[in-house]
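Record type: ASSEMBLY
Status: queued
Input:
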Amino acid sequence: MSDELNINKKRNDQIKTKSSATSGRGETDIDYVRPAELPEQDLYHGHSFITKWIFCQDAKVIGVQYTLTAVFTGVVGLILSWMMRMQLGYPDLFPFLTAETYYQMVTMHGMIMVVYLLTALFLGGFGNYLIPLMVGARDMVFPYVNMISFWMFFVAVVVLMASFFVPGGPTGSGWTLYPPQAILEGTPGSGYGILLMLISLSLFVIGFTMGGLNYVITILQARTRGMSLMRMPLTIWGIFTATVLALLAFPALLVSSIMMTLDKVLETSFFMPTIIKAGEALSYDGGSPILFQHLFWFFGHPEVYIVALPAFGIVSDLISVHSRKNIFGYRMMVWAIVGIGALSFFVWAHHMYVSGMSPWFGFFFATTTLIIAVPTALKVYNWILTLWRGNIRINTVMLFCLGFIVTFVNGGITGIFLGNVAVDVPLSDTYFVIAHFHMVMGIAPLMVIFGAIYHWFPLVTGRFLDEKLGKWHFWITFLGAYSIYFPMHYLGFIGVPRRYFEMYDSPYMTSAVGMNEFISLAAFIVGAAQFIFFYNLVKSLRLGKPAGKNPWKANSLEWLTPDVPPTHGNWGEKLPVVHRWAYDYGVPGAKEDYIPQTTAPSEVKDAEVEKT
Amino acid sequence: MTEVKKEQTTTHKIGIYLWIWGLLFVLSFFSYMVDWYNFQGLLRWSLILFFMFLKAGLIMAFFMHLFWERYALVNVLLWPMTAIACFVGLMVAEGKYTVFSRLFYFFVGGA
Amino acid sequence: MSDLNLDKLPGGFKGMSEDIGSDQTTFKGVNWGKAMMWIFLLSDTFVFSCFLVAYMKVRASVVEPWPYPSEVFALEMFGVPVPLLLIAIMTFVLITSSGTMALAVKYGYEKNRKMCGWFVLLTAIGGLTFVGMQAFEWSKLIFHDGVRPWGNPFGAEQFGAFFFMITGFHGTHVSIGVIFLFIFARKVFRGDFDTGRRGYFTTMKSDYVAIEILGLYWHFVDLVWVFIFAFFYLW
Amino acid sequence: MFTGLVFLAVIIGSIIFHVWTPWWWTDIASNWSAMDDTIILSFWIGGGVFILVCLFMVYCIFRYQYKEGRRSEYKPEDKKLEKGLTWLTTIGVVALLAPGLVVWNNYIRVPDNAIQVEVMAWQWGWKYRLPGQDGKLGESNNRIISDDNPYGLNIDDPNGKDDVFVESNELHLLKDRPVKILLRSIDVLHNFYVPQFRSKMDAVPGTITYYWFEPNKNGEYEVLCAEYCGVAHYAMRGKVVVEDEVSYNKWLSEQETFSSFTAKNRNNKLNKKKLVKINNLSNNKNSILKEQDVR
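Status: finished
Output:
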């Protein structure tokens, strides 16, 4: 393998300046960039505390608001997971944990983590903060709508949290909210709980659509001069594709929420067939529960990639910056992101192999699902090939990236098990599934989030996070999380079904008591380790080492603002002009080992740059 | 909001709008006639879909100016429809399967 | 300010690949608001598609007979039931309003304040008529025919549920459109788009392109009706 | 150094755990050993990829740790390598997919000699219905379930007359005889799952789903509900007994049939009335609707 990778001769024919291709007059001027198409953006600058920090139209502040709100819900989710693990590891020890509360915790934990933490954090948090900075815009294109978007999200969170306090408590129908069970008695929170959940989701979708339109249009229509799509950092590609997916997938969630609300409130029968409860037939008739599952997963599968793609993008950037090497196969990475995004709309029913849908769908969805494995695997190869022959800084950021690779590969491969229809039959609805999706869309994206926070904290606050605490945080989180979820696969092999309040007395389940105790212990430790991180955040905000400009020696635009942290309007007097992609690290002939995107070719004449 | 210079945007003769407008009336009338003459089966379906797509196409192309837009926008808007097409196709299959299993195993009391 | 000259850019697929490969904007010459409206409409298309897909799936899988819309929606005229009469009229009204909107957009391009304003107002009135007729249709179904979301005398329960949900959702879109049409008619007449007056909430300058954006929305509403007409009333 | 070593330890630890794990699947008791085989195949291919990727990563950590002044290699892409990896991955994926599809094809095609067994799931328990002598299950409908007709059978359907009711959690099956499980639910989603048989499928109210297997080992097996169905989901257990023909027939003869069940209730006139009433479902429904109109 390594022979093929020996340094080829420079493919100078690849050098191609867009300027000379389009302008006609720029044949000789290697620094030429097309003039601005659009006038300067008109911005509203807040004057009071309220317009500056609360109802703020600055995408950076909105990003931080999103992040803090999402992290708050995340902490709630974390505490819920602790309580679940208390029950599973030490059943009967905690009398306040009844089956009802357990199922309510399962549900709220799932929904909070997937939608209100990961989606909101990646797109609302990182998206808002990074998009305008990384594409060289002054702000999002519709700052006002962007502000409303955050407050919609905020209200959605409030409604969600309110469901903890209504009679009957929050819904306990599992995060998939499958009818008929979700709205029938016998499921905790089938009264107000489920209604508030559906309302909260609808609000989230509406709020998110507002934000999502902003992200998409900012990326498509408000890039700075010289910033072509193929020069964008992969972070932006990931967030962009994920946002497009969200805009097209959330409608299915909205529709299923509306229909289920009607089933609950008006007793329509969209998802409700004839149901016998306590010997009496309810008034429902003729509906189709499987339809809900189709709608839900038509949203739900893209949702997986809504979480995963930004993580892919961000981790590519982090790995590239901290191994001082260009990302390997940038173009393939972009195509892989777009391809995965597009394919994700054709694979939804692989969550439903044993749901009783038309059995013939198994062939179609197994095939499409495994096709997705190919671009995903390529991305993994490219990450490790980026490390290869790099100059790797082993700091906290890089550690989280390495942790991501291990957990993601692990979870991705168990995904191939579950996507392959016949293998899924014995494994579906068991702990194998739990282990799989926590590994691949729980731990792996969280690794990226932590890495990204350690990476961009100096930009947001002007100070580094504490490295020593960071390393403790990483090792406990990574090793702990791995030892939670790796053994959990084997519970699935035994055949322990998911969503079991207690393992009861089946012989093969009792054999796993020890493992359950161990997993619970690990979960408590990992959860507690997050408070090291929060302490680090608070401490470093005040006392962290000052970072200065571009502390990581990165190339992408967000580090090149005149002020650190960037102020409203981002760029001061003049918008930056981009001359190259974001990955010119270690270019032979250049003085430094990195060439920022704004560096004009004439400034680094000797650099043997391959690609612009 | 930015002002893209509008001078370049070609305005279109009023005739084209009136012409499309008329065409939409005629097509709506035709699709109404499908019901009026009570066509059934495949003929009904193909006529309904034909008129529907023709009308939708006219509205999108001329009233919504897609005909005059650059291909980048047009393609971005039309490709996602394949996902919907896939969804529709599979759900038709699923609906048929459901009704098959219902009729095959259930008796439908009275009705 | 800008040297973007759309006429000089290559068209067709060559233009497309160049647009996508270029810097700054991907949709050349497309205003931000307009691009946003297009993407929003794409998202909204998925909403309506999901509604219609759900409807088709359920309708295909109920075993009870589905009410025959041609008869359910018939209107008694001079003692003879005319099938789908009201729906036909509603369709014509909506297409008419779509036509007037297209003209309003055209005059908006030309910055013809008066004509633009009148046509926007005309569109708003068309929309209002449509909503009114829909209210009539709903009340007839509810009070006269006894159709409820949870059941109806004609057959499968889901008929009423889907009817009220889908036409209701569409009607909501129309109503929102009508409100905005009235607001924008006022703005046009007041000359906001000529003076570039700043918006009350957004503090952004007004521009005639807003009429085009509103037009896109309105045509979309019409477009959805085409599909509802075909799938709900004609099927 | 430390970092690389820990990651190496994680990989080696994973392998050791996998090899020495005391937790492994239950002994298979059905014909679906092919499913186990595809899992094993996935383990070899997937596990191999996992180990290779991680080892390569560890190698990079050791070999290319940061050194002041060193330049990393500048090589944006390598078409040949990328193409090679694409093909390799594609081959691996096809190798996993193909057997999976073959097994699935067997899973959804029920052999002709399979005995039909209706599993009826309810919150929270199981009961079963077997076809009688004629080998055919009678038509059923959830809407007419009542005390006199606990399975909601069509009383006019001759196939249903000799259907055997098993109104308990315990089901007996014949060894080495394929069974087609027809799943039916009267309230919410359930899933009839016996880990030893490897196979499962959701029971969906409003429709019938199916799957099949061939039990090939005598014994008692626990039935689990594998689709979340409400608070007592975890306690929704049943029992399957696989046995030889003699004891099976003995068990079968102890069960009640539909006709014996109705005969028992025949003297009660009220019941009969109810059945007639329910049979005129359409009239019944209209009256329900009128009640709803009032509401």
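Annotation: The helical segments of chain B are 14-36, 41-63, 71-78, 81-105.
Annotation: Chain B is about 70% helix and 0% strand.
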